[in-house]
Write a structure and sequence with these properties.
The chain is of the alpha/beta class. It has a single domain (46-181, 234-394), classed as Metal-dependent hydrolases (TIM Barrel, Alpha-Beta Barrel), CATH 3.20.20. 46% of the residues lie in helices and 9% in strands. It is built from 17 helices and 9 strands. The protein has helices spanning 2-25, 42-54, 77-82, 89-99, 103-111, 122-128, 140-148, 169-176, 206-218, 229-238, 262-270, 281-284, 292-306, 323-329, 332-337, 362-370, 375-394, and strands spanning 58-59, 115-118, 134-136, 152-158, 179-183, 221-223, 245-248, 275-277, 311-313. Strands 1, 2, 3, 4, 5 and 6 form a 6-stranded parallel beta sheet that branches. Helix 7 links the parallel strand 3 and strand 4 (152-158). Helix 2 packs across helix 16 (362-370) and helix 10 (229-238) packs parallel to helix 11. The longest helix is centred in the N-terminal third of the chain and has 24 residues, at 2-25. The radius of gyration is 22 Å and the shape is globular.
Length: 395
């Protein structure tokens, strides 16, 4: 009887302690996002929260601050009914411009992201003119200013899905309009070089050499995320400045054409550049229930291979839109047109468990804490490493 009473008392105390820890943890994570269960205790949760708040957090490839979950929010129903293009990024930002609701700013704050590198700067130029909290970054000073003012900034990154035109002046024009990161190929061969899913890998063309040199001259970062191996090696040899692969993974961890071999990863980081690891589930693993731990596995491997100073984050997923909408615009035909084939296993309805949209970015910081990284390593990986390269090349 006495033993049973003691056992009951211990159980009661344990339940109360668990409830107490759970309540405290809610100070550091949201009920809706950024709350993937890494088994962190309160001290580690507090540390992760502090690191995320203190750091300049940079998503090296961002498809929008909110994914499909944004369109499940009740206040967007009227927008959906009145605007056929409601799925677009510009449309959801219009909530703030037209209604002065600061809805999007709250999403940025939830994500804790200082800088989002985006694929098309024009909508953001129009938005930044109307939103006091959003700016366009063309130098590191702009990024530091955004952090100082508790604001947010975007940085233009271009992926040439149709290939760069054979006119070197397009780079100068793009630079003057604000572009600071240039992917030199997409998946297929073009005037510049060979992409990562092309049948034959032929390296840089003579024009491709001109492109790399022009980017160096302008102060534009060269991105090799989609280049084939020979094009990667050629670029690393020719570039006078660090190059990056801002959204990729390790081919050793998961053998996929969108991932880079050890030799490619070393070539990039030997220039002083960095590797951004993405949150694209079907490029990280063949597990249909891919979760954020699979992303962390790629980070761990690359850190062990080339050093934490050369690793960053470029989530590249999920897209801003309902799952039905994304599926409708990026089906097999659209995928094939830019060099993806059925064996690449693209599933537009799949998200990485623990990263449903940018508001889950704190999960990456929490995951790094769970994996035992130091404060300096975490600050570097979630933004500082990219900022170092950006400042060296773009000022």
């Amino acid at each position: 009887m006495l033993l049973r009473s003691c056992a009951a008392a211990i159980t009661f105390m344990t339940l109360n302690l668990s409830a107490s820890i759970s309540k405290k943890r809610k100070k550091y994570t949201s009920d809706k996002f950024g709350n993937y269960d890494f088994g962190l205790d309160e001290i580690k949760e507090q540390r992760a929260f502090r690191l995320h708040q203190e750091s300049i957090v940079i998503d090296m490839v961002q498809q929008g601050i909110g994914g499909y979950r944004v369109f499940e929010e009740p206040h967007l129903k009227d927008l959906q009914n009145s605007n056929k293009d409601y799925m677009s990024l510009g449309a959801i930002y219009s909530e703030d411009i037209l209604g002065r609701k600061n809805v999007m700013r709250e999403r940025w704050k939830d994500a804790g992201i200082t800088v989002g590198c985006v694929g098309d700067i024009l909508p953001y130029v129009l938005l930044a003119e109307n939103l006091s909290w959003l700016s366009i970054a063309t130098s590191s000073a702009d990024i530091y200013q955004a952090q100082k003012s508790n604001g947010h900034t975007v940085l233009e990154y271009h992926q040439p899905t149709g290939g760069l035109p054979r006119d070197i002046s397009v780079l100068e024009k793009a630079y003057l309009k604000g572009r600071r990161i240039q992917g030199i190929t997409y998946n297929l061969s073009d005037f510049v070089g060979s992409g990562c899913t092309e049948r034959v890998d032929h390296g840089l063309t003579f024009y491709g050499v001109e492109v790399v040199k022009k980017c160096n001259e302008l102060g534009m970062i060269v991105d090799l995320s989609h280049t084939g191996p020979l094009t990667t090696y050629d670029t690393c040899k020719i570039s006078k400045f660090p190059v990056i692969a801002n959204h990729t993974g390790s081919k050793e961890v998961y053998n996929h054409q969108r991932n880079k071999s050890d030799k490619e990863l070393r070539a990039i980081t030997d220039t002083g550049g960095i590797i951004g690891v993405y949150a694209v589930p079907f490029f990280l693993t063949d597990n249909p229930k891919a979760n954020i731990s699979h992303m962390l596995n790629h980070i761990d491997y690359i850190v062990n291979l080339v050093g934490w100073e050369h690793v960053g984050i470029g989530t590249d997923w999920v897209n801003t839109g309902t799952k039905d909408y994304i599926e409708s615009i990026f089906g097999l035909e659209a995928q094939a047109s830019i060099g993806f084939r059925p064996e690449h296993n693209i599933n537009t309805r799949q998200n990485l468990i623990g990263f449903d949209d940018a508001r889950d970015f704190p999960n990456i910081t929490r995951g790094l804490v769970a994996r035992g990284y130091t404060d300096d390593e975490i600050k570097g990986i979630i933004g500082g490493n990219f900022l170092r390269v950006f400042q060296e090349i773009c000022g």
